[in-house]
Amino acid sequence: MILNCVGLFYFLGEEISWGQHLFKWESPDIFFEYNIQKETNLHNISNLFNELPRTFVLIWCSFSVFSVILINRYSKINKRILLLVYPNKSLIFISSLLIIFILPDLIIDKFNLHPGHGLFDLKNFNQIISYTIGKEPPSFETFRLGVFYELVSFNFLRLSELHELIFAYYFFIYALTFREKIF
Amino acid sequence: MNIFIKKKLTLLYLIFLFFIIFLIVEKLLCHENQHNFNVILNFSCHDSSINNLDLWSEGKLVENIQAILLFFSIILLFSK
Questions:
Q1: How far is A95 from chain B (nearest CA, A)?
Q2: pLDDT band for position A181 (50/70/90)?
Q3: Cβ atoms of residues A181 and A157 within 8 Å
Q4: Residue from A111, A124, A113, A117 nearest A159 by CA
Q5: Which of A103, A104, B35, B75 could connect to A153 by a Cys-Cys bridge, CB 3.0–4.6 Å?
Q6: Which chain B residues have a beta carbon less than 8 Å from that of A90?
Q7: What is the spatial distance between Cα A50 and Cα A7, in angstroms, rounded to a whole number?
Q8: Which range, of A43-47, A84-88, A132-136, averages the lowest pLDDT?
Q9: How far is the first Cα of chain A from the last one, in angstroms, to the nearest whole number?
């Protein structure tokens, strides 16, 4: 539970750049130098502070409830562990929602189906023109395929922001239902 | 209404689902379809304030909602 709170505190702190978004202070020199977005946070400095915790949270939010339910069918799990992992079965709804937004992008990415990211910004047709400079332009079918994959994988959104929103909602419902069970 | 009060989780899920749908539709229609306005889109996106909200940018609505949800999660876990 302490680990959970520390994780949430880190997530919240990084999300608001430890208060910079609220109080609008200037980033210290070290962040100005090493942070990609020049903000007072760690996750834009190194993948170690971004991709690693993100992957862990993603696995936890997507699969923990399903895994525990499945394991519990075959061998009974301690009730306290069950309560800690999923205080309410309805968390499955959020896990499923998250999987819906992860799977298409993951499949397209892993099987290398997309004909080329960046070409298919739906509103910015100038990118197609820039592609043609020195290169053979993509055919209309390739362009349509790219647009299709952009839509199916939800990449026309800021997908990582959507994932983070669902993570935050998952933890909110988790905290709400956990509290109800405990008190 | 009574059923919603009894099942507050259902209500919370519905609100969240509609919020996600709104975000997706807003982005898809108002930001990715600017070359193909029809009358309804013109009204709901081009001429209204929706198109200027910039919901997905740093420090805007989506990030603020995340921060609020995380803040209340921590409060809920700590408070008795």
A1: 12
A2: confident
A3: no
A4: A117
A5: A104
A6: 9, 13
A7: 13
A8: A132-136
A9: 15
Domain ranges of chain B: 2-78
**Pairwise CA distance, residues B79 & A1, whole Å:** 13
Q: Look up tokens 């939800």; give the residue.
A: A154
Side chain identity at residue A30, one-letter code: I
Domain boundaries, chain A: 1-43, 44-182
A–B: how many Cβ contacts below 8 A?
Answer: 98
At residue A102, the pLDDT reads 93
Residues of B with CB under 8 A from a CB of A: 9, 12-13, 16-17, 20, 23-24, 27-28, 31-35, 56, 58-59, 62-63, 65-67, 69-74, 76-80
Q: B12: number of CA atoms within 13 Å, CB side?
A: 17
Give the residue, A49 or B14, on which the prediction is more confident.
Answer: B14
DSSP states along chain A: -HHHHHHHHHHHHHHTGGGHHHH-PPPPHHHHHH-TT--S-STTT-GGGTHHHHHHHHHHHHHHHHHHHHHHHHSPPPHHHHHHH-SSTTHHHHHHHHHHHHHHHHHHHHTT-SS-TTTT-TT-THHHHHHHTTSPPPPHHHHHHHHHHHHHTTTTS-HHHHHHHHHHHHHHHHHHHHHHHH-
Q: Give the closest-approach CA distance of B73 to chain A in angstroms.
A: 5
Handedness of CA A99, A104, A109, A112 (dihedral sign): positive
Asked if B56 and A14 count as a contact pair (C-beta separation under 8 A), the reply is: no
